[in-house]
């Protein structure tokens, strides 16, 4: 009887993890498919120059914000067609003084409990001009001079929601390299692969562009620390396709500190749980109306993080081999499928021996990830800032 119970638990755990591995494997394969190029909602005037409101929510970002804004202001786009607004939250007078000297709008709200959602809502509330699109960038994001020109070309194809290609701008240590590599895997699985088979891209928190009227109408619905996941859910429940534009780069600073890595991942895991619980309310309607995008996104929130899978699968493979060797075969197969999926999702340019050697930092990071689980609070909406080391 005891062995039967142990066997049932073993199979149940395997099935639970197999679902996440199967999802990753499917989209790793889909990333190799030809892009279906789902048509946009309408065809715009390719020669028209859209107007853009560019928002930088900046909480305690004194180390990076001025350089990011100064770089952005070098756009080759007409200056009367875009405007930059920085929402300065808990930044120093010196930083605000430098920003005030730039041709931008500087908002200085005072929030009892800060959050990125509140910063975005404040900017829209205090904006007195209509634009065609709103662009959201993080305070550490750097873009190329033709960013808006290239983005305008995509906007004129009729897309209302666009996610640009976020890339690592730093590789100063193993943690930063692995963080950047993880993001590139996500770009492959949750953005490129999804678009390849006609599904919406996932959003990523910055490098995002939305139709201004839509954003103005929906931004006040945001209430959690995972505002990008909330925006994504709102778009998908309304049947709005999210385009991933791989050719438009947004360079993002990767965390280079193990404690910051843990803090960031805990925030993401909390947001994932909150998003899943919020999305359940609309799931029956999505199933009824065949909203595959929304169903897929709901399933995505239930996935076990890859780093946890990378630790759990070999652990259970070895454990089952010790208990009953034949039980371990299914675990080794699952681990092999996960490894193949991840390798497929890594861009060819990053499949180097140097990058793989830096994976030596992974065991400690996985332990940090596992330690996060006991700190997750699904009711926590506190904004947690990821510090930038300087």
Report a brief summary of the structure.
This protein is of the alpha/beta class and 390 residues long. Helices cover 50% and strands 12% of the residues. It has an 8-stranded mixed β-sheet with strand order 3-2-1-4-7-6-8-5, with helices on both faces.
Helix fraction bin: 40-55%
Percent range for β-strand residues: 5-15%
The chain-level mean pLDDT equals: 86
**What low-confidence regions span 5 or more consecutive residues with pLDDT below 50?**
none
Q: Count of helices?
A: 15
Q: Structural class from helices and strands?
A: alpha/beta
What is the alpha-carbon Rg in Å? Answer: 22 Å
Shape designation: globular
Main sheet properties: 8 strands, mixed
Total beta strand runs: 8
How far apart are the first and last residues' alpha carbons, in Å?
Answer: 59 Å
Order of helices and strands: HEHEHEHEEHEHEHHEHHHHHHH
Q: Which strand order do you get reading across the main beta sheet?
A: 3-2-1-4-7-6-8-5
Provide structural commentary:
The chain has 15 helices and eight strands. Helix 1 (2-30) packs parallel to helix 13 (328-345), helix 8 (227-237) runs parallel beside helix 9 (258-279) and helix 9 crosses helix 15. The protein is an alpha/beta fold and 390 residues long. The chain has helices at 2-30, 65-72, 93-100, 116-125, 147-155, 174-196, 212-218, 227-237, 258-279, 283-288, 292-300, 306-323, 328-345, 353-357, 362-372; strands at 52-59, 82-89, 105-107, 133-136, 142-143, 161-168, 208-211, 242-252. It is 50% helix and 12% strand. The mean pLDDT is 86. Strands 3-2-1-4-7-6-8-5 form an eight-stranded mixed β-sheet, sandwiched between helices.
């Amino acid at each position: 009887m005891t062995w039967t119970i142990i066997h049932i638990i073993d199979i149940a755990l395997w099935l639970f993890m197999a679902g996440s591995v199967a999802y990753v494997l499917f989209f790793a394969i889909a990333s190799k498919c030809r892009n279906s190029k789902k048509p946009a909602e309408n065809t715009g005037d390719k020669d028209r120059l859209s107007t853009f409101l560019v928002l930088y929510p900046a909480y305690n970002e004194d180390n990076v914000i001025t350089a990011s804004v100064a770089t952005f202001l070098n756009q080759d786009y007409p200056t009367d067609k875009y405007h930059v607004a920085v929402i300065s939250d808990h930044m120093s007078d010196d930083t605000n003084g430098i920003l005030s000297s730039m041709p931008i709008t500087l908002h200085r709200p005072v929030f009892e409990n800060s959050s990125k959602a509140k910063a975005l809502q404040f900017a829209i509330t205090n904006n007195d001009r209509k634009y065609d699109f709103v662009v959201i960038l993080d305070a550490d994001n750097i873009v190329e001079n033709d960013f808006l020109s290239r983005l305008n070309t995509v906007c004129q194809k009729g897309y209302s929601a666009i996610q640009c290609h976020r890339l690592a701008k730093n590789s100063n240590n193993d943690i930063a390299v692995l963080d950047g590599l993880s993001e590139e895997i996500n770009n492959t699985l949750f953005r490129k692969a999804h678009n390849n088979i006609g599904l919406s891209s996932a959003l990523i928190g910055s490098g995002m562009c939305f139709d201004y009227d839509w954003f103005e109408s929906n931004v006040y619905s945001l209430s959690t620390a995972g505002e990008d996941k909330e925006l994504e859910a709102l778009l998908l429940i309304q049947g709005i396709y999210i385009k991933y534009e791989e050719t438009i780069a947004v360079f993002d600073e990767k965390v280079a500190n193990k404690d910051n890595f843990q803090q960031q991942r805990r925030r993401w895991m909390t947001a994932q749980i909150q998003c899943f619980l919020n999305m359940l309310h609309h799931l029956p309607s999505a199933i009824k109306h065949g909203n595959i995008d929304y169903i897929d996104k709901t399933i995505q929130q239930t996935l076990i993080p890859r780093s946890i899978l990378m630790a759990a699968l070999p652990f259970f493979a070895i454990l089952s081999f010790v208990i009953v060797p034949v039980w371990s075969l299914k675990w080794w197969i699952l681990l092999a499928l996960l490894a193949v999926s991840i390798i497929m999702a890594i861009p060819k340019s990053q499949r180097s021996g140097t990058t793989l050697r830096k994976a030596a930092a992974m065991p400690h990071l996985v332990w940090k990830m596992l330690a996060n689980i006991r700190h997750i609070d699904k009711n926590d909406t506190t904004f947690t800032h990821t510090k930038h080391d300087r």
